[in-house]
Amino acid sequence: MQNTHSYCVRIAALAISSLFSLSSMAAENPEQMTEGISQKNTEIVGFKLAGDLTFGYDSNIYDKDDHRSVRNLSWDLSLNSPINKQYKVYFLTGAYRALEDETGDFWNDSLIKLKRYSVYNFGESGTIDLSGQVTIPTSEASRDDDLQTALRIDLPVGFKVWEADISVSPRIKKNFHQYKTAGGRALTEWIYSLSMAADYSRNKFSTGVSVLVGNTVSYQGTRRDSFDYEVYSYVEYQFSDVLSGSLSASTSGFYTDAERGNLGDLELLDSDKAIFGADISLSF
User: Fold this and answer.
1) pTM assigned to the model
2) For residue 104, how many other CB atoms are within 10 A of its CB?
3) Which of 108, 128, 168, 228 has the highest count of CB atoms within 10 angstroms of its CB?
4) CA distances in angstroms from 64 to 68, 185, 248, 253, listed in the order given
């Protein structure tokens, strides 16, 4: 157990180092910097920790006695801290309690993410950001596959249409497994995907929909014949400055990004399983 803990600490240290190097390279390209960024934007703003703790329940709404029933209780912790006015670092972890089949408690993978805001601005509201995230393999599935870590690069493009926030984010992920196969099956080396989302807020209500489309390539170079996809929608109400609640529906399980909460991953999606959820979030 001590060796496992030390291994995860080393991965976390490598993750932070890699992400800082990635963002530094992006920041050194003057063609991607806008003229309006002042000297103040690179000043250290001090350590400020914020985040969300979310408790949720999800189900595919089959009767609990039906063999197809899936029900889970979950919690997710999302922490973030600005490094300066352009960079923010995130840490995300979580777990769930399965109430069907293999009843018990299971960890999700954890991640560390570094995001560089406003690499390029366009139009009245358009921005292009850059982010990189490293996976810490804390889930049972990742340990079974001997996943050592994974690196994902995102290039989010955001803009406003009327009063809605629109984002389009191409992304690519590289897995690092100890072996190329596990249990007689080929493991996934690359995941490339496109995330598209639209969000709208008015007073204390927010709503949105997102679509994730992608494909995978194994270590043997085999690509899936068809693209995986997921559609996720939600409605949220802000009860107070620190408390909010939401209802959601997904075609294939959890999926949101680091700023929103749940991890999700194309390899975990099942397009035959629609999931409905209810969450309560505490912000700090």
Assistant:
1) 0.78
2) 10
3) 108
4) 8, 32, 20, 18
Partners of 121 in beta bridges: 127
CA distances from 124 to 78, 138, 161, 162, 197 (A): 30, 42, 11, 12, 19
Per-residue pLDDT of the chain (284 residues; tens, 9 = 90+): 434 444 343 444 444 444 344 344 434 444 433 334 333 444 445 679 999 999 999 888 888 888 888 888 999 999 999 999 899 999 999 898 988 877 778 888 899 999 999 999 998 899 999 999 999 999 888 999 999 999 999 999 999 999 999 999 999 999 999 999 998 889 999 999 999 999 999 999 999 998 888 899 999 999 988 888 888 899 999 999 999 999 998 887 655 555 555 544 545 456 567 889 999 999 99
Cα-based distances in Å from 231 to 56, 61, 236, 260, 273: 19, 18, 17, 15, 12
